[in-house]
Design a protein that fits this description.
The protein contains eight helices and 17 strands. 25% of the residues lie in helices and 28% in strands.
Length: 362
């Protein structure tokens, strides 16, 4: 009987993933990853509540007991702080807008968890992500594919997966929608069957990224000048970490017309403002590229651009584009139509139908 270690966050998705694998005949155990404490995320107790309550661990343990499987808690705090929190803070200080969920998947869920699973003798890990994987004999590669439900597809945040990780990861929910998942949870009597989905970044209490970065990097987030398209100073901002490309709300000054954040320069501590049309562009360059459906080295020798669809943020509809090599580990993306608010630090992910070709950091 093949053994699977299921990452159980305490939510309904990962709980149902474990239930499905048990029903499919796997030998299953659950694991909840302790990624940070209140001290790590600079959060103190307030009104009897804490930022990272024990309720998620308790929910995961309750589900494991209900399913009759072992449940473990692994402490990955130090690694999570180094690879996710510190990267998040530094990226904002450099004027970028990172996606910490992608970094967590890259370094924690599909790296450290798989490493630990192997040490314990498990052939596979599994998560509650809405995505699919399959082996393609023609290309002799593992493929990552979109989840069947377009409203829940999470393939965008999984583009960093390697061939080895895909070969040893199961996605039981890839062919399901949320309604089906909750129905299974209710039928099984799971305590979290109606638990709401998490929306915020897990380590930023209340979603205030700027305040978090100010606490994490004291003295490094300083006010500076707003400038217009001509370079004229038109006001004072709170610090580049408080803004992202395309932002309109929270700018705090009136210019007589709608103004958006069009650029950030951490070196000069300036935030550029302009009209909506200044946010439009048709090309970008991605670095730190990972390709799944094709071999990266072979792609870098490509003589002609490859036709794909691509998206530059999680909830965006895919856009027609061409991709071509732009040096080692870099890809140029040329869209057929203007894209709004291409944001440095975010991910661009390439698709061919429902197959994830790969992606990189803008």
């Amino acid at each position: 009987m093949e053994k699977v270690l299921v990452g159980m966050s305490g939510g309904v998705d990962s709980s149902v993933a474990a239930k499905i694998l048990i029903d499919q005949g796997y030998s299953v155990a659950g694991v909840t990853l302790k990624l940070f404490s209140n001290e790590d995320i600079l959060c103190a107790e307030k009104e009897g509540k804490t930022c990272c309550a024990l309720s998620d661990v308790q929910d995961a343990r309750s589900v494991a007991f209900r399913l009759g499987i072992d449940h473990f808690v692994y402490n990955f705090r130090e690694y999570f702080t180094e690879k996710v929190i510190n990267h998040f803070v530094q990226s904002y200080l450099e004027g970028n807008t990172p996606n910490p969920c992608i970094e967590c998947n890259r370094w924690i869920k599909f790296d450290k968890m798989l490493e630990r699973a192997r040490l314990l003798g498990y052939e596979y890990i599994a998560t509650g992500h809405y995505a699919r994987s399959e082996y393609d004999p023609a290309s002799m590669r593992w493929l990552l594919k979109k989840g069947i439900d377009p409203a829940k597809d999470q393939s965008y945040v999984l583009y960093t997966l390697t061939q080895d990780q895909l070969a040893h990861t199961l996605f039981p929910l890839g062919g399901m929608d949320k309604r089906q998942v909750r129905s299974i949870a209710e039928a099984a009597g799971l305590v979290n069957a109606k638990k709401a989905d998490s929306q915020d970044i897990c380590f930023v209490p209340g979603g205030d990224y700027g305040a978090f970065i100010e606490k994490a990097a004291p003295g490094k987030v300083e006010p500076g000048p707003y400038v217009n398209a001509e370079g004229t100073v038109v006001g004072t901002h709170k610090g580049v970490a408080h803004y992202t490309i395309g932002q309109r709300r929270g700018i705090g000054i009136a210019l007589g017309q709608a103004a958006y954040v069009t650029a950030k320069d951490a070196k000069t501590n300036t935030v550029s403002l302009g009209p909506n049309e200044a946010l439009m562009s048709r090309s970008l360059v991605a670095q730190d590229v990972n390709l799944i459906a094709v071999d990266l080295t072979e792609f870098e020798r490509l003589a002609k651009p490859m036709r794909v669809t691509a998206k530059i943020r999680y909830n965006q509809k895919e856009q027609d584009a061409w991709i071509s090599p732009e040096g080692i580990g870099r890809i140029r993306v040329d869209f057929d139509a203007d894209q709004r608010a291409v944001t440095p630090g975010q991910a661009v992910v390439f698709y061919s139908g429902d197959i994830v070709v790969g992606g990189g950091t803008i």
